[in-house]
User: Fold these one by one.
Assistant:
Number 1:
Amino acid sequence: EVQLVESGGGLVQPGGSLRLSCAASGFLFSNYEMSWVRQAPGKGLEWVSDITASSSTIYYADSVKGRFTISRDNAKRSLYLQLNSLRAEDTAVYYCARVAHYETTFDCWGQGTLVTVSS
Amino acid sequence: EIVMTQSPATLSVSPGERATLSCRASQSVSSNLAWYQQKPGQAPRLLIYGASTRATGTPARFSGSGSGTEFTLTISSLQSEDFAVYYCQQYNNWPPLTFGGGTKVEIK
């Protein structure tokens, strides 16, 4: 069974940092591009960042560029998102998502991890 | 950045009826358009890609159409499990990948 499991969310003060992890199983992780997508409470979906299978190309949304860093460890079948200089508007459920081979769509999602930025 | 606009924000439909959801792009995205379904407390699920191709496991009552800037998701006969929020997403010109604001399909 294809599965993505996020962890690392929690309550953090403005200006603080957090590292999210996503553990993949049930598929050949090293063959897939991966992304992070977030959803603020009661709001819609916002793409955050993308990393190719070999980590050769990385993209960020303007809203997080310079503050967040995406990375992966194919040997550990894991995806990461380092969140620095956090702001209240970063409060959201963060999903890791697998990018489909045939199109840049998200064909598998984790259950999400909640990040709350508040003093 | 391509802006995706969905309408209506909320659609009230009776079980068994047809639901038609719209998604408009601020510029052409060709057929590089996907639809997702999200139920409360759950992650989104891919329904349609390439504007009209059903993803694995998507029931035949879901159909997508359109190209360029105007797209439609049709649910031919709403089942109880179809009441959810639906999002469109373009992947023609990115970064960024962009989603619409969503349409909530609720029971009438």
Number 2:
Amino acid sequence: DIQMTQSPSSLSASVGDRVTITCRASQNINNYLNWYQLKPGTAPKLLIYAASSLQSGVPSRFSGSGSGTDFTLTISSLHPEDFATYYCQQSYSTMFNFGQGTKLEI
Amino acid sequence: EVQLVESGGTLVQVGGSLTLSCAASGFTFDSYSMNWVRQAPGKGLEWVSHISSRSSMKYYADSVKGRFTISRDNAKNSLYLQMNSLRAEDTAVYYCARDHPEWVGSFDYWGQGTLVTVSS
């Protein structure tokens, strides 16, 4: 199985900060990497697919990059509504597993 | 508007069985692959199962293989997850999620989830 490892596990930041979350795959997954946002009591939201493609309706302050085994999600300037937990997920193999999550706190 | 509404979650005993349903609307259901994803209390997201648009391909996480069965009824715009031999560690909110039309394995729409509690 492909293991997905995110860092950090938690992150404290302020409104207006630039934030980067890292995701590492245990083997080459090309660009088969997706990012989601999860807030308590709400459905998960797809932010980025194919490593760098912005999902329709997602603000442009979110961006993704990377290929192979190393990927990043960047939020260019934090808004109050961005405080949430973020997950990466690989779709290279048919075991579509997620990373352990990164909790972004004020 | 795309809508996915899960139902069927409840309290069930260890070793018991349960079937979850997901009612889809607002899109051409039989054109999309679908998935179940779960989140245990205080834990992260865990992909559970995937089914292709015509049910020709089905995949399962190792943690549920042999115990859970995914299915769909395209005439009823519905997705199902039959869960047998339930364990305490199956306790979670279960979400149904639609595959992205351009990128299989990424999930562009999700339901609000249904809670399954497995207790002894």
Number 3:
Amino acid sequence: DIQMTQSPASLSASLGETVSIECLASEDIYNNLAWYQQKPGKSPQLLIYYASSLQDGVPSRFSGSGSGTQYSLKINSLESEDAATYFCLQDSEYPYTFGAGTKLELK
Amino acid sequence: EVQLVESGGGLVQPGRSLKLSCAASGFTFSDYYMAWVRQAPTKGLEWVASISYDGGSTYYRDSVKGRFTISRDNAKSSLYLQMDSLRSEDTATYYCTVGVLYWGQGVMVTVSS
């Protein structure tokens, strides 16, 4: 199985700051990487698919990059609504696997 | 607007069965692979199973292989998950997903005596 190592596990940042979250795959996943945002009591919402494609309706302050085994999610100009847990998912091969999540708190 | 509405969850004893359903609307159901993903309380996400456009191919995580069966009815735009021989570790919220794109609101399954 492909292991997804996500870091950091938690993050505290101020409004207006820029943050990055990383996912490292145990093998090449050929850009088959999605990023999700999940708020308490809600289902995950897709932000980015195929490593860098922005899902319709997602603010442009979210961006994804990476290739091979290393991928990152960047959030520019943090807003209060960005407080959430973020997950990565590899859909390169079965079984699909998720990162453990990054909890983003706003100061 | 894509809508995925899961149903069929609840409290069940270990070793018993439960069948989850997902009613889909707002997109052409038969054009997409569908999947079930679960999340144990206060835990991360875990992919459970996927099914191809016509149901001809299915994929499972090892821990549910032989116990869970994913199926679909394209005429009814519905996805199913038959869960047999349930274990306490299957306790989770189960989400119906359209590939990796859209997720339902989830349905809770609790396996406990």
Number 4:
Amino acid sequence: GNSVTQMEGPVTLSEEAFLTINCTYTATGYPSLFWYVQYPGEGLQLLLKATKADDKGSNKGFEATYRKETTSFHLEKGSVQVSDSAVYFCALSDLNTNAGKSTFGDGTTLTVKP
Amino acid sequence: EPEVTQTPSHQVTQMGQEVILRCVPISNHLYFYWYRQILGQKVEFLVSFYNNEISEKSEIFDDQFSVERPDGSNFTLKIRSTKLEDSAMYFCASSDGQGYYGYTFGSGTRLTVV
């Protein structure tokens, strides 16, 4: 079956530091890959996505590249801000799965200190 | 920007009682989902719904759970006889592309079973 493995947290960084959150996946078909962000007390928001190999998803300074050869989709940001403090979820959706069920990683909590 | 709306935001119920969680998906979306999140971390798939029927359900979605789209706009999750372990955040999501391009999530209903 499909699975997503994320770097364990929590991650604590100083403002303007470089962020990497690792994500690897296992899928039977050709999945789309996503990063979702969840701010305290809120629902999940789609941060970025990539639907095929070598695609780069980007949004709000965050980037992730779909690497089929390493089955990875690592999230990066060059300079984090306090407002980036949140829980980040890597996820995949496989067209081979009926109606596009998504499989989520366990989430990585990021805290950015001023 | 279109939103997925969930009500109530917080529900407290006694063990053994029935609860109905309500969602209004984005109007032109065709695929609907319920997920739950326990302790603010793991996001677990419950059920997907398309064309007025369940497309897929997880092992969590046993006989005490049911979903309905009663009037073409609302999408409800019913738990017939709540248990303590049903306490969680329940998120509704919708998609216009079978989940392949990501979901729009609602802000969730926090269910507390006492």
